[in-house]
Amino acid sequence: MSFLTDTLVAVLTVYISFTNTFAVAVTDWFTPAPSEQFVAIEPVTQTDEKLTTLPSRFSSIPDLLRQSVQYQQATVIGADGLSAPTVTDPIEAIVNIFCTFRSSDSIKTTTGTGFFIDADGVIMTNAHVAQFLLLAEAERTGDAECIVRGGNPASPLYTAALLYIPPAWVLENAAVLNDEQPMGTGERDYALLYVDGTVNNQPLPATFPALPFSSELLSTRIRNADIVVAGYPAGDLLARGSLVDLIPRSADTSISELFTFGSNRADVFSIRGSVVGAQGASGGPVLNAAGEVIGMIATRGDDAVDGAGSLRAITLSHVHRTMLQETGFSLAENLDGNLALRSQVFADTLTPFLLSILQTAE
Predict the structure, then answer these.
(1) Which one of 74, 144, 186, 293 has the fewest CB atoms closer than 10 angstroms to its CB?
(2) Which CATH architecture has domain 90-318?
(3) Cα of 245 vs its chain's centroid, Å
(4) pTM of the model
(5) What letter would DSSP give residue 221?
(6) What kind and span of H or E run contains 231?
(7) Contact, 130 vs 189, CB < 8 A?
């Protein structure tokens, strides 16, 4: 797998470099190049004590989007600052991402959670949820459709396009995407979706119910801090084989421990058990006492340590830092600009190669 993915990355890098020679000649006439502030890597900030290390599989990070002139310029076109948060209740901001796969002999459904992180219609969720938008295009399991549902109970609302999924995550997980219960630590397990339409062809709302967030580095002093988690847990409904009556849930709980992927920065934290802790809650927000999203549910936790319904979440500082590594832009900058254009550039630039990786890994 390593040799194959390294080869694919090398081929894609050559492709992007080649196409950029033409893109520069055309787009530099009317689009300013990104300023130095967009490509600067933040300094390392240590937490106040050593963290427990989780295993990391990401030995090398493909530098694909940083080399793409189209992607870099699309990210700054129309950038005028983030839209202001519009809600404080996580129940108002979360959505259910519901995907259906139909083959000649079966129908398979999958469900996950996401939340509006920007009022212009950007949804944050897990890569292992957003991957189904890639799988739909790859047609690995037949005809596929993903819709965004909301409300209580969840009902169809929107269609969405992939705005960003870490290429490094796809490279590392391509061989296991179709596993019934894929295992992972949560590293780089995030993605951004962009609402591009409604299921009933009605106009999109002027603003979406977005939560405030903080991508500041968490200190170990946050252990035992009170938090709120929210999601669309579907454990009981999945056991009965129906997601018709899926309802949103939120719960007060607390952080028990922090973990790092090797840099001694808080990348993951464990959450004590609650009613939210069930399959389907992945991608849900975790809010601090100030009402800011500081993390996103990524995996099940250790029930023996933290009680039934325990969870683990990746920090938004992990999302911010790794997104900066891969794109040259911070989390906030990746939520700004011309979203439709950036989604299209991602689709044109990277999606064909991500699909080739998926096909090769079959």
Answers:
(1) 144
(2) Beta Barrel (2.40)
(3) 25
(4) 0.85
(5) G
(6) strand 226-231
(7) no
